[in-house]
Every structure is written in structure tokens, then in C-alpha cells.
Amino acid sequence: xxxxxxxxxxxxVLMVVLxxxxxxxxxxxxxTTTTAAAGGEFxxxxxxxxxVAPGGAIQIRAHQSITxxxxxxxxxxxxxxELAIAxxxxxxxxxxxxxxxxxxGCAAEGGQAGAQAIIAQEGVIGVIGTTCSGAGAAALPVxxxxxxxxxxxxxxxPSLTSDLLGTAGDNYHPGYYRTAHNDFFQGGAVARxxxxxxxxxxxxxxxxxxxxxxxxxxxxxxxxxxxxGTVSVFTAVxxxxxxxxxxxxxxxxxxPELVFFxxxxxxxxxxxxxxxxxxxxxxxxWMGADGLKVDDFLVLPExxxxxxxxxxxxxxxxxxxxxxxxxxxxxxxxxxxEPPVADFHAHTYDATLMLLSAIRDxxxxxxxxxLKIDRQAIRDYLTAxxxxxxxxxxxxxDAFGDCGSAKISVVFHEDPADPQATKTxxxxxxAGGVAG
Amino acid sequence: MTNRRNSMPxxxxxxxxxxxxxDAFLFALxxxxxxxxxxxxxxxxxxxIDGRGITGPAWRDxxxxxxxQGFMYGLIALGYSMVYGVLGFINFAHGEVxxxxxxxxxxxxxxxxDVGMWESAFPAAFLIALISAALVSTVVAVLIERVAYRSLRxxxxxxxxxxxxxxxxxxxxAVRGLFGDGFKTVPVLPTALQDRVxxxxxxxxxxxxxxxxxxxxxxxxxxxxxxxxxxxxxxxxVAEDKEIAGLMGIDVNRTVVMTFAIGGAMAGVAGMxxxxxxxxxxxxxxxxxxxxxxxxxxLGGIGNLIGAMLGGVxxxxxxxxxxxxxxxxxxSVPTWLAYALGVGAAAMSVLGLLRxxxxxxxxAGTNLGMIVFGVIGALxxxxxxxxxxxxxxxxxxxxxxxxxxxxIGVLMIRPVGLLxxxxxxxxxx
Lengths: 436, 429
Prior knowledge:
Oligomer: heterodimer
CATH topology of the largest domain in chain B: ABC transporter involved in vitamin B12 uptake, BtuC
Shape of chain A: globular
Largest sheet of chain A: 8 strands, mixed
Structural class of chain B: mainly alpha
CATH topology of the largest domain in chain A: Rossmann fold
Radius of gyration of chain A: 25 Å
Number of helices of chain A: 14
């Protein structure tokens, strides 16, 4: 008798277990049956979709460097995002909400932490960020796995997209796009300017180990050596170093005519302030990149006579919102009380416009006003962007997410008392790798 | 069983496997460190003679820069050493005491700059800022002693150590909360300090000379105070033996407060000099210098004041000149020298074998190491070493690593530090 009861018990447990399996492995109602009720053809993709209720706001986020020494770079871009949202207006009757801006700290920790914070929030479609490539490399896997898109207006490290010859970069993940240039363009432009215009043949390069600075310095070295020059010293500082005696001694030992140091503040400050104390660097031409092309650095008296590479801001494009670059600058100054402080506000404006256009053009509108936005459709739209009118020019995206118009310029810094004048004092420019 | 144990076979080492391997490994590590250090030094000299080294002025600038940096580390290290001597624990919040001195220096110099005094009467302005920085640091140090450490006087020494770590974080983020996280830029120095000054025939930057002179004056003042004054004698007595000093009528509490105050004052001076030299301070300015000053204190011999200064200067110079010295490894060893080293390694191997016959269990591991690594060393010296081409890119990025490897090396070879420790009677053997 007991054996029969045991058997019945076992059978019962087996049936319960099988039923649980069936429930778990069966199709979810959500993904297949909404269509009939709506009366349309919304077919969700493999990454899921975001639903915006009638009267609700469309959620996008910004992940920028808003504290610390690199705060000017990130704040400048957040303002670009806010102006873009204001200019683009509502999407199918829904407002666009930016929420709280996450800080990327211009380092991998900030990228990781901010990304975790954002993916934990409901219904975020895409993120405009990060400021620094180092943070982007850490944040991108998180966003990519969550199905979101990350569009950057200032990441320039080639490792985040590709080498422009078809090989994906080490840090590439699907769902990444950028309107800033790939640093192969910037490194090449700097090399060509140094070799052809300044006519130097021996140079040194200093980076600080993160993907952006190392990528740019390496691109510069490769291009300069290809032109026939010599890179006598290729070295690095550590972020957080204050004493630059060792690195400057090493650079002086290589007797360069020009030193390219595409680092950030405060390392750049220490280098340029301490180079006067090292013998052998008296006639060296110093050149920085967009990380140092900020007012805080340009006001230092030691920076007089420096060159800076960066994005070319002599922009004449009119964006899809009908706003031209000069109008944008006027709006910026009216809203924030000062002219743009760094290089990438316009690129971030364009990045936001791209995301908002993608949302508007791929959203499925139900009869009651609910929006359904498929995540894969957003990615497909962005990858296929071509001839998009932005402030920074006509944008087209390649397979790895490089959408920028690649306009690079080199400016000369004459007067530390007038940093704004320097930013327009262009001595050389290239567009897409071609001078002029 | 006892019979078996007493009659040892001829080649038994009478020590167990793990001990032997660890001893052998440590021996090999010490030999390797010495070998690479010697190669770097000899290589640097050889490259210099060859004309492939750095110029004389570059050496001068590197060493002067290292001295300036090292004296600042030494001033901070004094605080670590004094507190360890008197209370027996490492005050990890001392780096933050240094940072508050630097922040005070910024605020005072900024105010003086706005008033115009910074440029018109720089010596007076410098002194005002220096004294303010020292005062603020002293107050902070005394406060943390009163708040965090006094009630833990009788606790096992791990407890105040952990408390000091917490205090360090508290100070960092309190400063961040009060003053923000951006870098504060100290006003420009007068041009006289930015130019080079000629002293003893050397051309040194004015500001570095000021840093070195101020540090030396402070250190001499401190030494005189500790050696000659009554309070100094009380500090030394309490450091030697707290109980007996108390029984002798010394107010232990007051002496401990004085210790923290003096250490804090030195850190405040260092903070002012740091602000002058690097012109930027922020809430995390004290973290790395604090760690380096602590290692400098250990390097010189913990508890030993002159040792702290010496350790600081050594660390600073090694940091500044180390990367250049490391380039000495790129000098390819000539064949005759490599063969001589190979012969030496083989000799060491034979010596180890001979010493094994002494059957000294304590040295068994070292002897084993001498044999094994003598053979390996000889093989490498005869085959790979002649004309070896070593290339190290970006040595300046390794400067911190070099400094700490030197520390590890010194402590492995001479654990009490360069000048020997000065410990309280409770801690000595």
C-alpha cells in the first residue's frame, strides 16, 4: 500500500515539475499577442521594445563627465543635448525627458558605474555619452547587452569602432555610434601638419595610458613614421602624477623638435608648467589635443605658443531642426550665460538629433497614443544613417558606428588672456583626411 | 624511532620542503635585485661614457627635482615616524593632514594675491601662508588625536590603525564636501622664483631651491627641538617607555598631543611647499604622497627622525632618477664581463655545495638556492647575456614601480631600514 502512495506522490511531483517547465519555456504572451488587439503590424525584435504610455515621456539619458578636472568637457556636451531636445520638440505628441545626468568621471570606473545606474532605470531607449573614451570602453558592454544604443559626441578612440579598414576595434560592441571623428583622422592630420607645415622631422609623444590618449598618440606615431619622420620618444605619464621630472627628462634625452601630448588636465598643466625646469627642452614646440583645448588650460601663461588639434568648429551646416551653427552658439550663450567652453557641443547636438530622429521614424503609434519603440529597429536605423543634416556637416554612419564628418583643425595659441580667440585661430584643417 | 632520528644520513638537509623552497626563492630574488640594480648603474655609467646618456644639465635637473620632492616626502614622513615611535601605530590620516595644509596654503595665498600682497611683498606673503598652513595642519592633527585616537590608547594597535584609515576617508570627503572636487590653482609665483638661480656654480630653479631650503630649516629646527628642549626630551622618553615615563612625572597625554602637533606642523610646511611647487591642490592630493611618505619612513627606519628624512630624500631621488637609471639596462653587456659573471655564478654554486656539508639547517635553503641559481645564472651568463638587447618603452611611466621595488629590495636585504628602527621597549625583541 505505501509503495503505491509513494508512486502516486512521485507522479504528482513529476507533473507539477513538467507543468512549471511548460510555463517557463512557453512563449510569453507579451511578445506575440499585442498585435491583434492594436490592429497594426508591430513586430518586436530580438532586443525587446520600450512602451511609452499616452501622456508619458520618452526617456533618453546623458552619461558625461560633469565633475572634476574634466567637467568643462562634459558640461559643454550636456548643454548640447539639452538644446537639441528643446529644438527637436515633441515626438508623436510625447515629450522627451533627459532625467538625471550620470557622471563618467573620465575613467573606466565612472563609465561602469554610470552605465549600471542607467540600465536599472525603466524604459531608457538610448544614451548620449560618454565624454571620455576610457569611460566609453567600460560602459559600452553594459549598454550593448541591455539592448540600448550609446551615441557619443566626443569619444574618438579607434578601439571603440574600427581601424577604418574593416577590422573592428578591441572595444567595439553593437549599438555604438559616434558623431565625433575617429582618431586615425586626427593623428594623421597632426602628423601631416607637423611634417609638411612645421617641417619637423624628430618628434616625441606622451600619452597617459587610456584608450583615447594612447590611441591618438599611436595614430600620430604611425602616420608620422609613414611620412618619413622619426618618433624618438613614445612614453606615458600616469593619471594622478604630479611630478613630471622623469618623463620630461626622458623626452629631453630624445632631442625632439616637437612634443605631442594629447593628455587631459591636470597632467597637461603639470607637463607644460614643469618643462621649463628641464634642460634640453628650450626650443621644443608643444602640441596638445582637444582634451586640453579648454579655457582653464589656455589661460595658463606657460601655454603661450602652443598648438592644439581638435574638431574644426568653423561649421556652416544647418541641422534637421533648421538651426545653423551660429544660431546654435547664440542660443547656447543665451541659455547658459557663456560661449561654448569645449570642442564637442555641436557633435553632441547632432548625436541627440540622430537618436531623436531614429525614435520618431521607427516608433509604432497605437490608436490610443501609446508608442512602441523597438530597440533593434533603432540600431538598424542608426547604422543606415546617410546624408543626415547636422551642425557638424552631412553625417553618414559606417558599419562600426563611425558617423562623424571628420573635420579636424589645428589652432595656434597666441594670447593666454584671450582663450576664445585661440579656438578660431585655425592654421591648418582637414576634412575626412584631406587637407584644405 | 629516536635512534633513526639521531643517525642522519650524509646528505640530509634536516629541514622541510616548503621552508627550503621559500628560502631558496628569497635568496634568488635578492640576488636578482642586486644584479639588475648593478646592471642599471654600470650600464648608465657606461652609456654616459659612450655619449649615449643624458646631458649633465639634465642629470642636475633630475636630481634637484628629486631632492625637492624627496624633502617634502621627508617632512611628511617625520609625522609618521614620530607617531609610530610614541604610540606604536601608523597614522594613515597623516596624508590628509598634509592635504589640509596644502588647501590652507591655497586659500591664504589666493586671498593675499587678491589683496595684491602676493606680488608686492612676496617674502612676507610666503611666510604668512607658510605659518597658516602649518597652523591648520597642527590643529587638524591635534583634533584627530583627541577625537579618534585618545580613547583607543589601551587598545591593540590594529584598532587605531583601522580608525586612522577611516579618519583619512572622512577628512578627504569632508574637504570635498566643503570645498568641491575641482583642482584649486595656487597663484603664480613671482618671476624671480620661476627663473634659475646660480648657487655653488649650479643653475637651479628658484622655487626648488626655496623648497629645499625651507625643508632643511624646518628639519633642523625640529631636530634641535627634539634633542635639546624639555618637551623634546619628554617625547623621547614617552617613545622609549610610556609607563616609566608616566611614573617619572611626565604628562603622557600632553606629550602625545605635542607629538601630533609637531608632526602636523611639519606636514603643513610640506603642504605649503607642495602647493608652491605644483600649484594645484585638491581633496585627494594627500593620498599618494601619504603612502610614499609612509614607505619613506619605513625605508629610513621607522621611529627614527633622521631616518625619515633620509628615507624621504632617497625615495624622491630614486623616483626622479630611477627611470633614467633603468635605461642603463639597454647597455649590452660585453662578452668578457658576461663570462666573468658566469664564472662568479659557478663559483657561488660550488660554495653553496661546500657549505651544505656544514649541515646547518638554518642556512640549508640559502645554500640550496646558491647551488641551483648559481648553475642557472652561469648558464644564462654564458649564453644569453653577451650582447643582450633590452628595450624598455616608456620608463618614466614605471617611476612609481621603481621606487617601490627599491623599497622592497632595501627591506629584504636590511629589514630594519637604512638607519635602523627606534622602537618602544614593548616592541623590541
